[in-house]
Automatic annotation (TrEMBL):
The entry's keywords: DNA-binding, Phosphoprotein, Transcription, Transcription regulation
Record GO biological process: phosphorelay signal transduction system; regulation of DNA-templated transcription
UniProt-listed Pfam families: GerE (PF00196), Response_reg (PF00072)
The HTH luxR-type domain, residue ranges: 150-215
Protein name per its UniProtKB record: LuxR family transcriptional regulator
Gene Ontology MF, one: DNA binding
Length: 219
């Protein structure tokens, strides 16, 4: 496979033995190559600056600067770099911190031989890689927030805007929507303008397409 198609990887772990094992897994793949190694988070940032890798694989627990701290710094210094966290710990807190730090995946060392290659390729496709326990943690966290009545931030629009979006997509005029929701036509127009701006859409047709994708109306 030509060099151009290879993903260039920085590997950071304070245990040389772990680095050697991980490097063996990665260098065995024709599309992956380790171009730099680091023994702690601070060195990882130096190496990333010198080698400009496509992907950084960072151990969470490292001296001088943890993998999480290094991930935050790398995401700031080199926003194009993909980041995977490598850890011994199946720990929900670390997992959520890793996501917040800009990592796109979280791989357990105990199953690195099974998961790491797949995680690298997913990261380069801009897809998240989550091991099964992490998926469970995410779902549990989501359900806990729903039960506590917290707002789920993933939704860009308010419940009222959603109601208006649905009615617009169903073909109702502003005046009709005002009658259905018992609000003024002016308020409907304001919500509609907010929707277009928030969602980056131009007109009713694009709003309708969005409503179909969001499952608000049948296609």
């Amino acid at each position: 496979m030509p060099e151009a198609t290879q993903t260039r990887i920085l590997l950071a772990d304070d245990h040389a033995l772990v680095r050697r094992g991980v490097r063996l897994i990665l260098d065995n793949e024709p599309d992956l190559t380790v171009v730099a190694e680091a023994g702690d988070g601070a060195e990882a940032i130096e190496m990333a600056g010198a080698h400009r890798p496509d992907l950084a694989i960072l151990d969470i627990a490292m001296p001088r600067m943890t993998g999480l701290q290094a991930a935050r710094e790398l995401a700031r210094l080199q926003p194009e770099i993909r980041i995977l966290m490598l850890t011994m710990y199946d720990n929900e807190q670390y997992f959520f911190e890793a996501l917040k730090s800009g990592a796109s995946g979280y791989v357990l060392k105990s199953v690195a031989d099974r998961d790491l290659v797949e995680a690298c390729r997913a990261a380069m496709r801009d897809e998240p890689f989550l091991y099964p326990g992490a998926v469970t943690a995410l779902i549990r966290n989501y359900l806990d927030r729903v039960r506590q009545g917290d707002s789920i931030p993933d939704s860009a629009i308010t419940p009222r805007e959603e109601e208006i979006l649905k009615l617009v997509a169903e073909g109702h005029t502003s005046k009709e929507i005002a009658g259905i929701l018992v609000i003024s036509a002016k308020t409907v127009e304001r919500h509609r303008a907010n929707l277009l701006q928030k969602l980056g859409l131009r007109d009713r047709l694009e709003l309708t397409r969005y409503a179909i994708r969001a499952g608000l109306i049948e296609p």
